[in-house]
Design brief:
With 513 residues, the chain is an alpha+beta fold. Among the domains are: 2-109, no CATH class; 279-345, Helix Hairpins; 349-501, 2-Layer Sandwich (Heat Shock Protein 90), CATH 3.30.565. 50% of the residues lie in helices and 16% in strands. It contains eleven helices and 13 strands. The chain has helices spanning 2-21, 32-42, 45-63, 75-124, 128-143, 241-306, 314-346, 358-368, 370-373, 393-410, 469-479, and strands at 147-152, 160-164, 178-181, 190-193, 211-220, 223-233, 354-356, 378-382, 389-391, 417-423, 428-435, 483-488, 494-501. Strands 2-1-6-5-3-4 form a six-stranded mixed sheet. Strands 8-10-11-13-12 form a five-stranded mixed sheet, with helices on one face. Helix 2 (32-42) packs antiparallel against helix 3 and helix 4 packs antiparallel against helix 5 (128-143). It is elongated, with a radius of gyration of 44 Å. The N and C termini lie far apart (95 Å). The relative contact order is 0.06.
């Protein structure tokens, strides 16, 4: 700094001498203002003021009569020197202020760029942990730190590392870390060295060349969430205001992101718990009702047959036995459906996919359920040239059975039932099972596949069903790589559209077996 000031004064003196001797300039003193401006722009206000005073003395010594002395013979020269000093100080101050503002603007722009990058990382990442590695690397570059890491925990001893710019290096043990203390209002935060008692032996001040450890608390809504730690060699000094602001604002953004993630996780857990409770309640309500009804019928019929005081004619005894058998079969269906639902929910459904002609799977199910369908006419429209499908025959049998049982349960005894299948445009086969029953309200179509959802029907009575048949249909179809949706049927009732994958073409020269 002194060398620069001396060089500027020498250069100004040479120019002033040239102006005075060669160009006959009577007062070359303004040339020294250039030296003042140089010092103000490079070093600041106080350096510029010192250069102003030095300029007055140099000009007085070399260019004011009597020369080569600090005496001034003419009072007018005193006034000129005083005015020059005032002007020089003012210009130096203005130049220094402008330089400071320019540097402040550049620093603010760097801070904004750094904070924008951190915000973008937190906004685009799926979690804070995913963004943390990029953040610590960014902070090392923007703040001039040798190392940065993020610790998460309610207290410093309980913190676990979320990200570290040097994960393989050992953590420094410092008994006197520098903690950022936030100030109320707009007052800037300041670093304070505190004793934590974590070092080994007597607390000591780090020696020259050792590293200082800086800590910024990460908190949100009054809750301590963790710390932002930084390491810097002692010879580099403490962080300046710009680096301090970046570390402070980065800690604030991390606190908000971590807290938001915690709240989201808590909300998700609360929703899962709520849905679990609702599912348990619905399951208990449905199962208890649908199990009690057949059990009551079985006990009543069995009790009647066991009554020694009553002599039952053979036909009436067979009728009671058929009732017991029907109710036992109903219980078996309920248990089977519940087991199927539990397999779907647990993700334990592993279909064994094979190549089949769809008609070969549909027709046996219809024949088996003829007694359940009664007088309903069942139409099967499957094209002969329909490509084979890749399905699990057991699961598809259960799907078709559930849909036909649903149609038989909720349609009139003479309502028609139709099964159609055609090739889709996306390499799949679409099968539609529809009936001529009362159907489902349009507002409820999106919910018919929900667990335990039932459309209330007048005169339904006790045999209302569990409401999981269509849930099982969707689960089985999706397990086979297809999907299911519900809509209105041209017959007037419900139409369930099933999309099934087409079997891949066999290698050239081979035929389907």
């Amino acid at each position: 700094m002194v060398a620069t000031g001396a060089a500027a004064l020498i250069a100004a003196s040479v120019v002033a001498a040239f102006l005075e001797t060669s160009l006959r300039v009577a007062d070359p003193s303004p040339v020294y203002l250039l030296a003042v401006v140089v010092m103000a722009g490079r070093y600041g206000t106080w350096e510029a003021a010192a250069t102003s005073i030095a300029s007055v003395l140099v000009y007085d010594f070399f260019f004011t009569d009597p020369r080569f002395t600090f005496q001034v013979a003419d009072p007018q020269e005193w006034l000129n020197l005083l005015l020059f000093l005032v002007v020089a100080v003012v210009i130096g101050r203005l130049a220094a202020l402008q330089t400071e503002r320019a540097e402040e603007s550049i620093q603010r722009a760097r801070e904004a760029q750094s904070l924008f990058a951190i915000s973008r990382s937190l906004a685009t990442a799926t979690s804070v942990r995913e963004a943390a590695d990029e953040i610590v690397e960014r902070l090392c570059i923007d703040t001039g730190m040798n190392r940065v890491w993020i610790g998460i925990g309610p207290t410093v001893p309980q913190e676990r590392s979320l990200a570290d710019s040097a994960p393989d290096a050992p953590r420094p043990e410092v008994a006197l870390p520098c903690v950022l203390r936030r100030q109320p209002g707009d007052r800037p935060a300041e670093w304070v060295r505190i004793h934590t008692g974590r070092g080994n032996g007597t607390p000591r001040r780090p020696r020259s060349g050792e590293a200082d450890v800086f800590r910024v608390a990460i908190d949100a809504a009054g809750r301590q969430l963790g710390s932002l730690w930084a390491v810097r060699r002692r010879t580099a000094g403490w962080p300046d205001r710009g680096a301090t602001r970046i570390l402070s604002l980065a800690a604030d953004q991390l606190g908000l992101a971590i807290r938001r993630e915690q709240l989201s996780r808590e909300a998700t857990e609360a929703e899962i718990a709520r849905q679990s409770d609702a599912l348990k309640s619905a399951l208990l309500d449905s199962v208890s009702h649908d199990l009690r009804t057949p059990l009551a019928s079985i006990r009543a019929s069995a009790g009647s047959l066991m009554d020694a005081a009553v002599h039952w004619p053979p036909e009436e005894a067979r009728s009671l036995a058929r009732s017991i058998d029907a109710e036992a079969e109903r219980l078996s269906d309920i248990v089977r459906n519940l087991l199927d639902l539990s397999r779907i929910q647990a993700g334990a459904l592993v279909p064994e996919l094979e190549v089949f002609e769809l008609r070969e799977l549909v027709e046996p199910v219809v024949r088996r359920l003829e007694s359940l369908l009664g007088e309903r006419s069942v139409t099967i429209e499957v094209a002969d040239d329909l490509p084979p499908v890749l399905v699990d025959p057991v699961l598809l049998d259960a799907v078709i059975s559930n849909l036909l049982e649903n149609a038989a349960r909720y349609s009139a005894p003479t309502a028609p039932v139709r099964i159609t299948a055609r090739a889709g445009d996306d390499g799949s086969v679409e099968m539609v099972v529809e009936d001529g029953g009362p159907g489902v309200p349009t507002t409820a179509l999106e919910r018919v596949f929900d667990k335990f959802f039932r459309v209330a029907r007048p005169g339904e009575g006790a045999r209302r069903g569990l409401g999981i048949g269509l849930t099982i249909v969707r689960g089985f179809v999706e397990a086979m790589g297809g999907h299911a949706r519900a809509g209105r049927s041209e017959l007037g009732g419900l139409a369930v559209h099933l999309t099934l994958p087409i079997a891949p073409a066999p290698p050239s020269g081979e035929a389907l077996t």
